[in-house]
């Protein structure tokens, strides 16, 4: 297993991108995370609003 510390250090220190976007594979981690994060928060906020207003699902 090769040690790539120097190459990664150069990559991280020479980039002007935010720290979490500097690695070449970071897009594969960040974008699914943000998609899941916002969808979970949207669903939670939607049902929280329904609970506060007292709206219940109709019985089938």
Automatic annotation (TrEMBL):
Species assigned in the record: Cyberlindnera fabianii (Yeast)
Compartments where found: Mitochondrion inner membrane
Pfam family name, one: COX7a
Major location (coarse): mitochondrion
GO cellular component: mitochondrial inner membrane
UniProt lineage: Eukaryota, Fungi, Dikarya, Ascomycota, Saccharomycotina
Protein name (database record): CYFA0S16e02256g1_1
TM stretches of this protein: 28-49
Domain of life: Eukaryota
Family annotation (InterPro entries): COX7a
């Amino acid at each position: 297993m090769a040690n790539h510390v120097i190459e990664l250090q150069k990559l991280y220190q020479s980039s002007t991108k935010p720290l979490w976007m500097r690695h070449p594979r970071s897009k594969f981690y960040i974008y699914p995370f943000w998609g899941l994060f916002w969808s979970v928060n949207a669903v939670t906020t939607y049902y929280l609003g329904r609970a506060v207003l007292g709206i219940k699902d109709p019985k089938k």
